[in-house]
Design goal:
By secondary structure, the chain is α+β, with helices and mostly antiparallel strands. It contains 20 helices and 15 strands. 49% of the residues are buried. Residues 2-118 form the PLAT domain.
Length: 673
């Protein structure tokens, strides 16, 4: 009687094992095995981390094993089980791998195909075609679109983390509880005594050190020491945690009437302002997006304020970017232009207002919208339209890991009404919702293509700006990622016609545009892909956004925002409308109070932490792909990433302000924090 040896691996995460009954059925081209209980006498089967083997006897040879059906039935009480993979050894000694990487919950079954990737047009038998369609039918019922707020990208239809499908939940919900993590951060930072001191101002700027000195690192200390200096203010537009706004100024906007007379003392090349603009030495940052956004009014005892400033920057002869003019509103009739030649406190307060506006833009647009929410759209569409056997699913799933879970938790605790965001942020209480809605009206697909995004702001020249490390490192990681994606796409798509004939990949990109992005006309997300190059770019956008771009705007938050005056999360006085009124008391009374400062510090510390057992870019321990050519592409990708990390490390050794947010060894695979 022929016998097949079945090896099953149970996951290593907490509670992955099960005491339930597990049955297996082998489905081959020549027949099916009996439904077989997998159980060894006097042995605890399917323990966490275990790899167990069993013999399945059959009456006759089953032919090529096409599917494996696994069922879990209750033993005493329902006990979820995480299955990593199944390997079948045939009577003639061949091994067939069946990746699973899924939870079996309740009395459920899962039917697995072998680990080879197939495009839909390559499936020829009715058995595998039906399996493919059933998987997608079930996924579409499980992963449903929902509009959390009007004008937002669509999100998952789940109100709480516990309502999510088990496969996309965190291994431990406790580990990503924002309230718990913020409270832990506040305790670790020893700012417990301040966290409820709302309305209580600090006595002076040095007083902020009371909540700062507990955790130090190179960058945050340097920021504390140099935040008042113009070079530090300008440097952050290039390599801070929001390096995505600065643009080359080719013409001064009419709403920003800066004259040569105003700034001539700041210019170093014996050129007029107009000549400096033509020479490419003038840059601009415009926070127009914040215009008309309602400031946080959730605390009746503290009025909070927002501004929509415009900042003009100058590249001096030493290639440093320095501020030369700031207007704290979009209307020049109501807002004077502040200059470095103004009084010390006028200029300091103007810069603080810009930093506060940058913090709002960073948290809500650069971070929340353009990494978290967009990656969730890609993830939901992936689950709905790409079966596990599709090469694009296998390629993308490591980069979607925990993203839907972290976003659901954020909607549950962080950005919801009366959530943590309301406690300390000027855009809390609904302003953050308005800001996302407004930003969505100008968001485009091409702005997620890294080289296009850099070029659209006129920032591509390394000769013009030799210290724009975000750009330089980003280019390297983008090209390495694109090269890897190109290798994988080339294995399965031998022509453009293969892309056009793949109905599942076409459904995926259409779902992203028509449902995820709600078919907004301006967004220009493609509804179809016609060439391999278009597919390579699209998949590169998904991976880069979820990994490198998120790392660039997330993990530097403690570095740049822990010194409160450098990144105030809110302001308690309105922006000045006249010069000569500011003094140190005005500044202290404008900055966040002790309570809000403590919540802010807890937030940026918690958000800057890596996950336990973090998986960094190029680390793929779950082997969704089994083919050697893809494994070879992964190895080349890892080698390229290691070389980039080494280059960045060498460069940083000489820097007082190292830039490592785009170093591949510090880029997690996915948006999970």
């Amino acid at each position: 009687m022929p016998s097949y040896t079945v090896t099953i691996a149970t996951g290593n995460q907490w509670f992955a094992g099960t005491d339930d009954y597990v049955y297996i059925t082998l489905v081959g081209t020549e027949g099916c095995s009996e439904r077989t209980l997998l159980d060894k006498p006097l042995y605890n089967d399917f323990e966490r981390g275990a790899v167990d083997s069993y013999d399945v006897k059959v009456g006759e040879n089953l032919g090529d094993i096409m599917l494996v059906k696994i069922e879990k039935k209750k033993y005493w009480m329902l006990d979820d089980w995480y299955c990593r993979y199944v390997t079948v050894k045939t009577p003639c000694g061949d091994y067939v791998e069946f990746p699973c990487f899924r939870w079996l919950v309740d009395d459920k079954e899962v039917i697995l195909r072998d680990g080879r990737a197939f495009l839909p047009q390559d499936d020829k038998t009715s058995l595998v075609k039906q399996h493919r369609q059933k998987e997608l039918d079930q996924r579409r019922k499980t992963y449903r679109w929902k509009e959390w707020q009007p004008g937002f990208p669509m999100s998952i239809d789940a109100n709480r983390h516990r309502d999510l499908p088990r496969d996309i939940q965190f291994d431990s919900e406790k580990g990503v509880d924002f309230i718990l993590n913020y409270s832990k951060a506040i305790e670790n930072l020893c700012v417990n005594s301040f966290m409820n001191m709302f309305q209580s101002s600090w006595s002076d700027l040095a007083d902020f050190e009371k909540i700062f000195v507990r955790i130090k690192n190179t960058i945050s200390e340097y920021v504390m020491q140099h935040w008042k200096e113009d070079f530090m203010f300008g440097y952050q537009f290039l390599n801070g945690c929001n390096p995505v706004l600065i643009s080359k100024c080719t013409k001064l906007p009419d709403k920003f009437p800066v004259t040569d007379e105003m700034v001539s003392v700041s210019l170093e090349r014996d050129l007029t302002l107009e000549q400096e603009i033509k020479a490419g030495n003038i840059y601009i940052v415009d926070y127009e997006m914040l215009e008309g956004i309602n400031a946080n009014s959730t605390d009746p005892n503290t009025q909070q304020y927002l501004a929509a400033p415009i900042c003009l920057l100058y590249k001096n002869v030493r290639n440093k970017i320095l501020p030369i003019a700031i207007q704290l509103g979009q209307n020049p009739d109501e807002n004077p232009v502040f200059l470095p030649t103004d009084s010390q406190y006028d200029w300091m307060l103007a810069k603080i207002w810009v930093r506060s506006a940058d913090f709002q833009h960073h948290q809500t647009i650069s971070h929340l919208l353009r990494t978290h929410l967009i990656t969730e759209v890609f993830g939901i569409a992936m689950y709905r339209q790409l079966p596990a056997v599709h090469p694009a699913f296998k390629l993308l799933i490591p980069h979607i890991r925990f993203t839907i879970a972290i976003n659901t938790k954020a909607r549950e605790q962080l950005i919801c009404e009366s959530g943590i965001f309301d406690k300390a942020n000027a855009t809390g209480g609904g302003g953050h919702v308005q800001l996302v809605q407004k930003a969505m009206k100008t968001l485009t697909y091409r702005s997620f293509c890294f080289p296009d995004m850099i070029k659209s702001r006129g920032m591509e020249s390394t000769e013009d700006l030799p210290t724009y490390f975000y750009r330089d490192d980003g280019y390297k990681v983008w090209e390495a990622t694109k090269s890897f994606v190109s290798d994988v796409v080339g294995i399965y798509y031998t022509s453009d016609e293969r892309v056009q004939g793949d109905e599942e990949i076409q459904a995926f990109v259409k779902d992203v545009c028509s449902f995820g992005m709600q078919d907004f006309d301006h967004c220009e997300f493609p509804k179809s892909l016609k060439t391999r190059d278009e597919l390579i770019e699209y998949l590169t956008v998904v991976i880069f956004t979820a990994s490198a771009q998120h790392a660039a705007v997330n993990f530097g938050q403690y570095d740049w925002c822990s010194w409160i005056p450098n990144a105030p999360s809110t302001m308690r006085k309105p922006p000045p409308k006249e010069k000569g009124q500011a003094d140190i008391k005005t500044i202290i009374d404008s900055l966040p109070d002790r309570g809000r400062s403590s919540w802010h510090l807890g937030a940026v510390w918690a958000l800057s932490q890596y996950q336990e057992n973090e998986l960094y870019l190029g680390m793929y321990p779950d082997e969704h792909f089994i083919e050697s050519p893809v494994k070879g592409a992964m190895e080349r990708f890892r080698k390229q990433l290691a070389e980039i990390s080494s280059l960045i490390k060498r460069r940083n050794e000489e820097k007082k302000l190292p830039y490592y947010n785009m170093s591949p060894d510090k880029i997690p695979n996915s948006v999970a924090v």
